[in-house]
UniProtKB/TrEMBL annotation:
Residues 577-591 have a biased composition (Low complexity). This is alpha-glucosidase. One of its GO terms (biological process) is carbohydrate metabolic process. The keyword Signal applies. Transmembrane segments: none annotated. It comes from the Eukaryota. The lineage of its organism: Eukaryota, Fungi, Dikarya, Ascomycota, Pezizomycotina. The keyword Transmembrane does not apply. It is an enzyme of class 3 (hydrolase). Keywords: Glycoprotein, Glycosidase, Hydrolase, Signal. Belongs to the glycosyl hydrolase 31 family. Residues 788-880 form the Glycosyl hydrolase family 31 C-terminal domain. Its EC number is 3.2.1.20. GO terms for molecular function: alpha-1,4-glucosidase activity; carbohydrate binding.
Length: 1009
C-alpha cells in the first residue's frame, strides 16, 4: 500500500489515483472527530495551508518544527480496518470454560500472622480453552488492615513457556501492603473449600451475609484468559466498574468491558479508562420488635425501616478485561495478569470509598484554587486574536472567566502568544493547552523537517518498538508518529526536559493530556516505510470538511427552532446521499469472523483466543497494536490500559519541575485506578444532546468513587450543534461540578455562554452561586485529598438506609450539604425530585428564598424550573462559609466573608472551612475553621497559622423558629444590621466588618440570638 522513497514516480501517481477512490471512513468507525493537537505537527485541513515556521510558532515540546510543509496526502480509510471479530459474549460458538475446565485443588496450606498461603494444582486435564492452562498457582490470603482483605492468585513458577507473563509490579501501580494495625476487628472473614474443587467466599461477620462466593464454579487460569465467578443476591446494587456511560446502578445485564478506547461516548461500551472497582450496597429490613435483619431483594416499602451495609471489591489487574453482570452473579474475565483482589468492609458507602482510596490506590491530588473557576475551550480558536476576542466578550458581558484553553494547530506566533498570556496573568486569569500523546517523526526526505523533541527521544531510546526492534510508527493528529515508552528508563527525564524547554516560550498554567488510550489512526506500524509522505492527513474528514459537516442538534430543537431544524435535516440528508454514492464499505463487513485457536505455549496477542467486547473490535483498531514492545520486553498487550495513567504520572513529575512548587493542574482522558493522584478527568467526546447531559451525572459520580473528584463534562456538548435551551440548562448544571468547562468541536456552531442572551443570564446566575461557594468547594476538595471522601455524591451515599435512592442519578449532591436538581429534558418548565431524609426529619431549604421546603417522605416533588433556573437546596444541619462572587477566583478570594447556617429540625448545624495559599504543594501555613450551631448560638473556632485578613460581613441563619429578643456577637449586643423575617424564618445579620476588621477568623467568636 505504501511506497518507499525509491519507488518510481509512475507508481506513486498510480497509487494515489487509486487511493482517491477511497472516501472518508464510515462514521461508525470514527465518530469521535477531535481537534488537532497543539503538542503535534500542524496537520493542514481541506485548504492545505502551509504551516508557519517553527521559530515563530507556539510549538509544544511534542510539536514538529517543520517549516513550509503541507499535508498533501490523505491516508486511506482502510488503514484502520482490523480483523472481523465477534465478541465471545455474542458468539453462539463460544466455548464455556466453566463446563470444559477442571478447576484447582488447594494443598500445602501454611498459616501465618495475617492469613495463610496455599498451592493450587490443576484438578484434572488441562482444558486450554482460550490459552495454555497454568498447572500450579500460589494463593495468598491476608487480612491487611482493619478494613481490608487481600486475596492473590498467581502462577507459582515462571517458566520458559510463560516467561512473558505480566504480573503488574508495585513500582508501576501501587500495590497495597500489609499494615501493622490490629486486624482482629475486621468485619470480613475468608473461608474456602476443596469440594469438589477449590472455591472461596468472603463473609461479613456482623451479619453473616456472604459478600463474595465462587462456590459451584471453577477457577480458570490460562496465559491469556482468567475466569472466576462470584454469586450475588437477587436485584443487587453495584456501582463502578468504569469507564462507561451508564446509569449509576449497573443492573444485572451488562458486559462491563474495560479496554482503553478512543471512540467518542457510546452508551454501555468501554470508554477511555479502566477502573476495576465496584461498590456493593445491600439493604436489610429491620424487624421493629426483634431487630432481626432480612436482606431486601424486591421493592422497598415506605413504611418499613431499613439499614444498609456496603463493601467494595477492587481487582488490581490492568489487562483487557470484562466483568459480566448477570442475574445472580458476576463473572470476571481478563486477558492475562493475576487475580489480585481487595475487599473493603465499609460498612457505609463513604467509608468504602475512603478505604479504597486511602489504602489501595492513593488519594487524589490537591488542586490550585483557580482550577475551580470557569474554563472556556474550543477546537476552532484559530489564533491569539480570536482567543483575545473571546476573553474580551466574557468581560463585556461580565461573565466570570478563569481559564481559556485551545487545541488548534501550533501556528500561533510566540511574540503574540507571550503578550496574550501575560495579559491573562496580569488579570489573574490562566491558560491551558492540549498535549497529545503521539510524537511527530520528521520526513527524512525534507532537510528542514527537523524536530528536536523526536531526535532527543530517539537518542534517549524512549519510544515503543516493533517486534524487530525498529520504532513503532503509527498515525495520529501530527501525521506519522512514534509513541513514548513509559517503561524506558529515560522517558520521564525526556518528557520533563522537553516540557521545561517549551515552557520557556509558552507559560502555560496546566496541561491537557489527550489521545492517551493510546490512540493511533492505523493498524500497525503504518509509517515505517512511508515517512517520506509526512505530514499526512488523517484517514477521515475533519469536522467541517466536505462530507463531514455536522448538522446535528439537540432533541427538541425541531420544536423551538423548526425552520433551522428543517434546513439542517435537508442538508444532512443531501450530505448522506452524496457520501453513500461514493462510500467504500469496511473490508471487515464481508470477511468471515476470525476465531483464534489457542496454541500451547504460544500467546497470540494481536488476536487473543478470547475476544472481549471492545467497542472497536480488533484490539489494534484506533490503537497501538498489542504486539508493540517496550524496553523491558513487555508487549503493549499487557500494559495498554496503563498508558494514560503513566503519561499523567510523567506529566505530574514534569510540571513539578517546570512550574516549581505549584500544584500541577492536569486533565487527562485515559485513566487507571489511582490516576487521581496526578490529574483530573473530563468526560471525553460527548454530544450536544440531553442524553449526554444526563449521563455526565452518573459518570461524575463514578469518578468520585474512583478517586478522581476533579471531573467535568464538555458543557453544552462537544460534538453536534448545541442550542440555546440545552446550553442554558447545561451551563447551570455544570456550575456544580468540580471541573467546569465549556468545549466544542471544529465546524460546529459556537457555544460560548455569551452567544445567547438567556444563557448569559442563566450562566451568571449559576456562577454567582458557584463563586460564592468557592470556600465550601475548596474545603470539600481538600477533604477528598486528605481522606478520600467524595466530592459529588449520590443521594444513596449520603442517605445509605433508604433503598429507594439506590438508582437515583438525576439529582446529585455537592458534598454533604447541597442538593442539585437539574432539568434534563427539553421543553419543560418543571422538574421532579425527592428530598432525601425527610422520613428521618431532615429539613431542606430553598437556596433562593431560604425557606424550608415542605417534603413528604418518599414523595417525588414537582418543582418550578423555568428556563434559567436550577433548583438548589441546602440540607438542614449545614454551615456554609462564603465569599462574594467575582469575575475571577482571585477577586472572590479578596472579598469579605459570610456564613449561612441552615438549622436542622433540632436547631443544630455544623460545618468547616479550610484555607491555604491556594497554589503551592507544600504549605507554610494553613487554617481550619469549625462551625457549630446549637441552643441559639453559632460558634466559629479556628486553628492554624494562616493569616486571613478579610473581614466577616454577614451571617444568615435559616430555620430560626421564633423572633430573637436580642442578637449579640461575642456578648456585645448588635444594635443595627439585624433583620428577622417571621415568614421565612430567616435571621440576617449584616455589617460585621468593623467588629471583625482584624480578619473573619482572627479569633473565635459566637453569635447568639
Amino acid at each position: 500500500m505504501f511506497l518507499s522513497p525509491s519507488s518510481s514516480h509512475r507508481q506513486m501517481v498510480f497509487v494515489i489515483l487509486l487511493l482517491c477512490l477511497l472516501v472518508v471512513i464510515d462514521s461508525m468507525f470514527f465518530p469521535s472527530f477531535r481537534r488537532v493537537a497543539l503538542f503535534a505537527l500542524p496537520v493542514a485541513v481541506a485548504n492545505s495551508q502551509a504551516t508557519t515556521a517553527a521559530s515563530s510558532a507556539v510549538a509544544s515540546p511534542l510539536s514538529s518544527t517543520s517549516s513550509g510543509t503541507i499535508a498533501s496526502y490523505t491516508l486511506p480509510a482502510s488503514i484502520d480496518y482490523g480483523a472481523n471479530l465477534i465478541p465471545n459474549v455474542e458468539d453462539p460458538e463460544a466455548k464455556d470454560a466453566q463446563v470444559m475446565c477442571p478447576g484447582y485443588k488447594a494443598s500445602n496450606v501454611e498459616h501465618n500472622k495475617y492469613g495463610f498461603t496455599a498451592t493450587l494444582n490443576l484438578a484434572g486435564q488441562a482444558c486450554n480453552v482460550y490459552g495454555t492452562d497454568v498447572d500450579v498457582l500460589n494463593l495468598t490470603v491476608a487480612y491487611q488492615s482493619a478494613h481490608r482483605l487481600a486475596v492473590e492468585i498467581s502462577p507459582a513458577h515462571i517458566t520458559a513457556e510463560n516467561a512473558s507473563w505480566y504480573i503488574l509490579p508495585s513500582e508501576q501501580v501501587y500495590k497495597p501492603e500489609q499494615s501493622d494495625e490490629d486486624t482482629e476487628d475486621i468485619d470480613l472473614q475468608f473461608v474456602w473449600s476443596n469440594d469438589p474443587t477449590f472455591s472461596f467466599a468472603v463473609l461479613r461477620k456482623s451479619t453473616g451475609d456472604v459478600l463474595y462466593s465462587t462456590e459451584g464454579t471453577v477457577l480458570v487460569y490460562e496465559d491469556q484468559f482468567i475466569e472466576f465467578v462470584s454469586t450475588l443476591p437477587e436485584n443487587y446494587n453495584l456501582e463502578g466498574l468504569g469507564e462507561r456511560l451508564h446509569g449509576l446502578r449497573l443492573g444485572d445485564n451488562l458486559t462491563a468491558t474495560m479496554y482503553a478506547a478512543d471512540n467518542g461516548n457510546p452508551v454501555d461500551r468501554n470508554l477511555y479508562g479502566t477502573h476495576p472497582f465496584y461498590l456493593d450496597t445491600r439493604y436489610y429490613e429491620k424487624d421493629p420488635e426483634t431487630s432481626a435483619l432480612t436482606l431486601l431483594t424486591g421493592n422497598a416499602s415506605t413504611n418499613a425501616s431499613y439499614i444498609s451495609y456496603s463493601h467494595g471489591v477492587y481487582l488490581r489487574n490492568a489487562h483487557g478485561q470484562e466483568p459480566i453482570l448477570n442475574a445472580g452473579n458476576i463473572t470476571y474475565r481478563t486477558l492475562g495478569g493475576s487475580i489480585d483482589l481487595y475487599f473493603f468492609d465499609g460498612p457505609t458507602p463513604a467509608e468504602v470509598t475512603k478505604q479504597y482510596q486511602a489504602e489501595a490506590i492513593g488519594l487524589p491530588a490537591m488542586q490550585q484554587y483557580w482550577a475551580f473557576g470557569y474554563h472556556q475551550c474550543r477546537w476552532g480558536y484559530k489564533n491569539w486574536t480570536m482567543m483575545q476576542d473571546v476573553v474580551n466578550n466574557f468581560a463585556k458581558f461580565s461573565i466570570p472567566l478563569e481559564t481559556i484553553w485551545n487545541n488548534d494547530p501550533n501556528t500561533f506566533p510566540y511574540d503574540q502568544g507571550k503578550q496574550f498570556i501575560d495579559g491573562l496573568h496580569n488579570n489573574n486569569q490562566h491558560y491551558v493547552t492540549i498535549v497529545d500523546s503521539a510524537i511527530y517523526i520528521p520526513n527524512p526526505d525534507n532537510a528542514t523537517d527537523a524536530y528536536s523533541v523526536y531526535s532527543m527521544g530517539h537518542d534517549m531510546d524512549v519510544f515503543m518498538k516493533n517486534p524487530d526492534g525498529s520504532e513503532y510508527i503509527g498515525a495520529v493528529w501530527p501525521s506519522f508518529t512514534v509513541f513514548p515508552d513509559w517503561q524506558a528508563v529515560n522517558s520521564t527525564q525526556w518528557w520533563t526536559e522537553s516540557l521545561m524547554k517549551w515552557y520557556q516560550n509558552v507559560q502555560v498554567d496546566g496541561i491537557w493530556i489527550d489521545m492517551s488510550e493510546v490512540s493511533s489512526f492505523c493498524v500497525g506500524s503504518c509509517g515505517s516505510d512511508s515517512l517520506h509522505l509526512n505530514p499526512v492527513h488523517p484517514p477521515f474528514a475533519l469536522p467541517g470538511e466536505p462530507g463531514s459537516v455536522d448538522y446535528g442538534y439537540p432533541e427538541g430543537f425541531n420544536v423551538t427552532n423548526s425552520t433551522e431544524a428543517a434546513a439542517a435535516s435537508s442538508a444532512s440528508a443531501a450530505q448522506a446521499s452524496s457520501n453513500s454514492a461514493t462510500q467504500v464499505s469496511s473490508s471487515t463487513s464481508t470477511q468471515p469472523y476470525l476465531r483464534t485457536t489457542p496454541t500451547a505455549g504460544v500467546r497470540n496477542v494481536n488476536h487473543p483466543p478470547y475476544v472481549i467486547n471492545n467497542q472497536l473490535g480488533d484490539l489494534g483498531v484506533h490503537a497501538v497494536v498489542p504486539n508493540a514492545t517496550h524496553s523491558t520486553g513487555v508487549e503493549e498487550y499487557d500494559v495498554h490500559n496503563l498508558f494514560g495513567y503513566e503519561i499523567l504520572n510523567a506529566t505530574y513529575i514534569a510540571l513539578t519541575q517546570t512550574i516549581k512548587a505549584k500544584r500541577p493542574f492536569i486533565i487527562g482522558r485515559s485513566t487507571f485506578a489511582g490516576a487521581g493522584q496526578f490529574a483530573g478527568h473530563w468526560g471525553g467526546d460527548n454530544y450536544a444532546t440531553w442524553e449526554s447531559m444526563y449521563f455526565s451525572i452518573p459518570q461524575a459520580l463514578d469518578f468520585s468513587l474512583f478517586g478522581m473528584p476533579m471531573f467535568g463534562a464538555d458543557t453544552c456538548g462537544f460534538s453536534g450543534n448545541s442550542d440555546e435551551e440545552l446550553c442554558n440548562r447545561w451551563m447551570q448544571m455544570s456550575a456544580f461540578f468540580s471541573f467546569y468547562r465549556n468545549h466544542n468541536t471544529l465546524g460546529d456552531n459556537s457555544q460560548e455562554p455569551y452567544i445567547w442572551g438567556s444563557v448569559i443570564d442563566a450562566s451568571k446566575k449559576a456562577m454567582q452561586i458557584r463563586y460564592s461557594l468557592l470556600p465550601y468547594i475548596y474545603t470539600l476538595f481538600h477533604s477528598a485529598h486528605t481522606t478520600g471522601s467524595t466530592f459529588l455524591r449520590a443521594m444513596a451515599w449520603e442517605f445509605p438506609n433508604d433503598p429507594s435512592l439506590a438508582s437515583a442519578d438525576r439529582q446529585f449532591m455537592l458534598g454533604p450539604s447541597l442538593l442539585i436538581t437539574p432539568v434534563l429534558l427539553p421543553g419543560v418548565t418543571t422538574v421532579n425530585g425527592v428530598f432525601p431524609g425527610s422520613k428521618d426529619g431532615v429539613v431542606w431549604y430553598d437556596w433562593y428564598n431560604q425557606t424550608a421546603v415542605p417534603a413528604t417522605p418518599g414523595a417525588n416533588v414537582t418543582m418550578d424550573a423555568p428556563l434559567g433556573h436550577i433548583n438548589v437546596h441546602i440540607r438542614g444541619g449545614s454551615v456554609l462559609p462564603q465569599q462574594e462572587a467575582g469575575l475571577t477566583t482571585t477577586v472572590s478570594r479578596n472579598t469579605p466573608w459570610s456564613v449561612i447556617a441552615a438549622l436542622s429540625a433540632e436547631g443544630t448545624a455544623t460545618g468547616s472551612l479550610y484555607v491555604d495559599d491556594g497554589e503551592n504543594i507544600i504549605q507554610n501555613s494553613t487554617l481550619y475553621v469549625d462551625f457549630t450551631a446549637e441552643n441559639q448560638r453559632l460558634y466559629a473556632s479556628a486553628r492554624g497559622l494562616w493569616q486571613e485578613k478579610n473581614a466577616l460581613a454577614n451571617i444568615t441563619v435559616l430555620g430560626v423558629q421564633n423572633a430573637p429578643k436580642n442578637v449579640s456577637l461575642d456578648g456585645m449586643a448588635l444594635m443595627s444590621g439585624v433583620n428577622y423575617n417571621a415568614t421565612s424564618k430567616v435571621l440576617k445579620v449584616t455589617g460585621l466588618q468593623n467588629a471583625t476588621s482584624s480578619g473573619a477568623w482572627a479569633k473565635d467568636w459566637v453569635l447568639e440570638w
